[in-house]
Amino acid sequence: MSSTTTGTTTSAAPNPSSLSPAEAKGTGTGTGTFTLLLFASASTFAGGLETLRFPAPTTLRGVFEALEARFPGMRAKVLRSAAVTVNLEYVDFDLDADADADAGDEGARGVGDAPDDRREEARGSGLDLVIRDGDEVGIIPPVSSG
């Protein structure tokens, strides 16, 4: 059974018009929404929600800030150890480096093994990766079984 929420979720997300020029690079002029999928403990931490919709464009950093604002403690307890995908491609990011550097560029390495470097540059990288209208972002915490 899937849980979805809209409406109130959008108020917790960053306002696309408040993006800095660096964050907005390559986002175009339109706005829309993207889908955020929460798996395993991320869903549990969010009260069982599995799918959320947020306004686009934003950045991965903006997504994390919105999640922390809506679900206090999620950054430390879930996001710090989670893998993240954007449109089924893993994103390399370093939340510890972001805490140490205001710009958050330390440790950010871009989108997986993206074959098209121009696409990666247009979207940004790491925590500055631009999330666009129609994108699908997945938060995948580590799982174990036994």
Fourth CATH level, the homologous superfamily of one domain: Beta-grasp domain
Radius of gyration: 14 Å
Mean pLDDT: 75
Approximate shape: globular
Q: State the low-pLDDT regions, or none.
A: 1-29, 102-120
What fold name stands as the CATH topology of one domain? Ubiquitin-like (UB roll)
- How is the biggest beta sheet arranged? 7 strands, mixed
Query: Architecture of one domain, according to CATH?
Result: Roll
SSE topology string: EHHEHEEHHEEHEHEE
Proportion of helical residues: 25-40%
E-strand count: 9
Output the number of helix runs: 7
Structural class: alpha+beta
Report the portion of residues in β strands.
15-25%
Instruction: Write out the strand line-up for the largest beta sheet, numbering strands in chain order.
Output: 1-3-2-9-5-6-7
- CATH level-1 class of one domain: Alpha Beta
Distance between the termini: 24 Å
Organism: Cladophialophora immunda
Keywords: Cytoplasm, Molybdenum cofactor biosynthesis, Nucleotide-binding, Phosphoprotein
Family: Belongs to the MoaD family. MOCS2A subfamily.
Subunit structure: Heterotetramer; composed of 2 small (MOCS2A) and 2 large (MOCS2B) subunits.
